[in-house]
Amino acid sequence: MFKMKKSSYNEALANEAINGQNIYIVGRELTAQRKYVDNSPTDEITGYQVWCATDTNNPFKVKFSAEDKPSLEEFQIGDIVNFEKLEAIDVNGNIYFRAKKIKKAK
Question: Is the pTM of this model over 0.90?
Fold first, then answer.
C-alpha cells in the first residue's frame, strides 16, 4: 500500500502516491460512511467511498463528502477515472484519499 508522511489532506501527497499511474474503478457500489456516537453507527451519512486501484497498488477507497455524493451509473469496472481535487493524507503510515468529483478519463 502507499507509505509516506504528511499530516493533512493535500494534492501534492495524492500526486506523489499515485505517481502518474492510471486509476481504475474497481467497484460500482458506493460505500456509505456513517456518523458514530458512543462507538455505534447512527443513520446520519457523512460521506461516501468509491473503490479504485492502480496498476501497482491494491484497491483503495476514495472518499467523497455527503454533499459531493458521486453517481457511478456511467462507469464500468476497469474504467480509467480522473478526480477533481484529489487529495491524500498520511495517517500512521497509511494513505487515505478524498476528492470532490469523479469522471471517466478521456
Answer: no
